[in-house]
Amino acid sequence: MKKDDGLFFGLEIPFSRMVGARSVEWGDGRAVATVDVRPEHTNSHGFAHGGLLVTMLDITMGSAIRSLDRDSIRCVTVNLSTSFLSAGTGLLTFEARVLHKGRTLATAECDARDAKGALVSKATGTFQMRHVEKR
After folding, report:
1. What is the CATH number of the domain that holds 49?
2. Which of 7, 39, 82, 102 is the 20 to 30 A CA-CA neighbour of 47?
3. Considering the domain boundaries, does residue 120 fall inside one?
4. pLDDT confidence tier of residue 3, bands split at 50, 70 and 90
5. What is the pLDDT of residues 22-33, one digit of tens each?
């Protein structure tokens, strides 16, 4: 997939465009995305706001699940648990993996790391899969 096609792992997600999310890798139950922390993404301490982190963790996990059947799976978040472990600045990388996929529910995890590889936050989520007709 072209990085500049305006899509986030094959879907139009306006919120991901607004925060500057970029698709990096996608396939076989895995997704990797990045975002550069800009001043408007920060909290009062100057670090990545938790809302930015949760957004990126969530949409990257959903994308990892969708990678298992790109044409027919859409996801909605059912449950999301996030731990904030260190302050995030600069380029952040989000790597998500599918842990389990059932008929209607899937579970994934995602790590957020800074440019030095330090773990910034971690999440696990349960997603309801909605199957749509193949295009």
Report:
1. 3.10.129.10
2. 7
3. yes
4. very low
5. 999 999 999 999
